[in-house]
Design a protein that fits this description.
The chain is built from 4 helices and 8 strands, in the order H-H-E-E-E-E-E-E-H-E-E-H. The protein is an alpha+beta fold and 139 residues long. Helix 2 (23-40) crosses helix 4 and helix 3 runs antiparallel to helix 4 (119-136). It starts with 12 loop residues before the first helix and ends with a helix.
Amino acid sequence: MYEPKMKETDNSVIEFIESVGNEKKKADAYQLLEIFEEVTGYDAKLWGPSIIGFGSYHYKYASGHEGDAPLAAFSPRKAKISLYLAYESEEREKLLENFGKHTKSKACIYVNKLSDIDTNVLKELIKHTVETYQDLYPE
């Protein structure tokens, strides 16, 4: 039976952030924590060992594969900060035009540090993400 790697845990978000070795990345993680909580209205939860997620939704694919995931999330990784936001879409791409220095994949946006990006655009991206997943996967 498939067991998802990303599960909500009872581990402390603050203890995890405190374990981040790079002081600048730790400060950015605390700032992101504040931004994500403010925009989503959800308290932070640790998903797996290193993803800080906000809210959740339950998905089920046509294949029968199903699970839970945070509506929006981030992780202060060693190389870059990973932002788990909405998948590629026209609206996401339009918002990213004014976001600042970043790289991206299908489901993640990567930044070196918060000072590289426009946090107001980040807030719009988070809001877009939450609305997208709540529309796609209503309770």
